[in-house]
């Protein structure tokens, strides 16, 4: 039995439809609305500052979740090494002229070095 019924889940095309409806479509609608309205928003307005603050906090939350509650291969690295790599990367960012790439490379080197040594 095909179509849009519960039994359609066994069809080979169903995961692609699900990804389209549940993943791509809801997020892309907001992206397109953002692009359409971005020209009319003053980048120094309180609304833009709030949007930047929320976006930055979401990225920080994802990074914190990856560092403090990792899965997969990252979970095998000691928590002290993971937190130390983040701290060293942030310190490098502040001390070396706010260069993001340099900070990422230093944090990665510490993380990889800690993974090899443990």
TrEMBL record:
<feature type="transmembrane region" description="Helical">
    <location>
        <begin position="100"/>
        <end position="117"/>
    </location>
</feature>
<feature type="transmembrane region" description="Helical">
    <location>
        <begin position="12"/>
        <end position="33"/>
    </location>
</feature>
<keyword id="KW-0812">Transmembrane</keyword>
<protein>
    <submittedName>
        <fullName>AzlD domain-containing protein</fullName>
    </submittedName>
</protein>
<dbReference type="Pfam" id="PF05437">
    <property type="entry name" value="AzlD"/>
</dbReference>
<feature type="transmembrane region" description="Helical">
    <location>
        <begin position="45"/>
        <end position="68"/>
    </location>
</feature>
<keyword id="KW-1133">Transmembrane helix</keyword>
<keyword id="KW-0472">Membrane</keyword>
<dbReference type="InterPro" id="IPR008407">
    <property type="entry name" value="Brnchd-chn_aa_trnsp_AzlD"/>
</dbReference>
<feature type="transmembrane region" description="Helical">
    <location>
        <begin position="74"/>
        <end position="95"/>
    </location>
</feature>
């Amino acid at each position: 039995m095909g179509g849009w019924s519960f039994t359609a889940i066994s069809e080979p095309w169903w995961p692609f439809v699900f990804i389209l409806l549940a993943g791509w479509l809801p997020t892309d609608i907001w992206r397109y609305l953002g692009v359409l309205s971005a020209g009319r928003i003053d980048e120094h307005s309180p609304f833009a500052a709030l949007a930047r603050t929320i976006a930055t906090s979401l990225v920080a939350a994802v990074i914190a979740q990856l560092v403090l509650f990792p899965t997969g291969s990252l979970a095998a690295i000691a928590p002290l090494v993971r937190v130390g790599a983040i701290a060293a990367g942030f310190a490098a960012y502040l001390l070396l002229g706010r260069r993001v790439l340099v900070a990422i490379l230093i944090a990665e080197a510490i993380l990889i070095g800690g993974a090899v040594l443990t």
